[in-house]
């Protein structure tokens, strides 16, 4: 399952790279990509994984790196 999120208040490319690296390691995540310029996170959730739980975990990882950053689902 693919989900796309707008990342608000993402301050630097280094933080974006750290978020991408940490999210890719999270259980239930098949792949992740953060585009700093577009302020966007593309999240691929593994088949059979609890998508809601994975998204909550990813939100915590994002906030650990960038406390003021919010994830807003893009449509």
Structure, explained:
It is a single chain. This protein is of the alpha+beta class and 75 residues long. The protein has a single domain (2-73), classed as 2-Layer Sandwich (Alpha-Beta Plaits), CATH 3.30.70. Helix content is 37%, strand content 32%. The protein has helices at residues 13-25, 51-65; strands at 2-8, 29-35, 40-45, 70-73. A four-stranded antiparallel sheet has the order 2-3-1-4, with helices on one face. Helix 1 packs antiparallel against helix 2. The radius of gyration is 11 Å and the shape is globular. The two termini are 14 Å apart.
What attributes characterize this protein structure?
75 residues, Alpha-Beta Plaits, four-stranded antiparallel beta sheet, alpha+beta, 32% strand
Structural class: alpha+beta
Instruction: Look at the structure and give the mean pLDDT.
Output: 96
Number of helical segments?
Answer: 2
Q: Which CATH-level-2 architecture?
A: 2-Layer Sandwich
> What is the CATH level 1 assignment?
Alpha Beta
Instruction: Name the overall outline.
Output: globular
What is the string of helix and strand elements? EHEEHE
Oligomer: single chain
What is the terminal separation in angstroms?
A: 14 Å
């Amino acid at each position: 399952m693919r989900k796309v999120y707008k990342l608000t208040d993402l301050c630097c490319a280094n933080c974006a790279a750290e978020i991408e690296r940490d999210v890719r390691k999270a259980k239930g995540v098949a792949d992740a990509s953060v585009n700093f310029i577009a302020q966007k996170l593309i999240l691929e959730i593994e088949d059979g994984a609890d998508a809601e739980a994975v998204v909550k975990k990813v939100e915590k990882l994002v906030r650990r790196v960038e406390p003021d950053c919010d994830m807003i689902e893009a449509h």
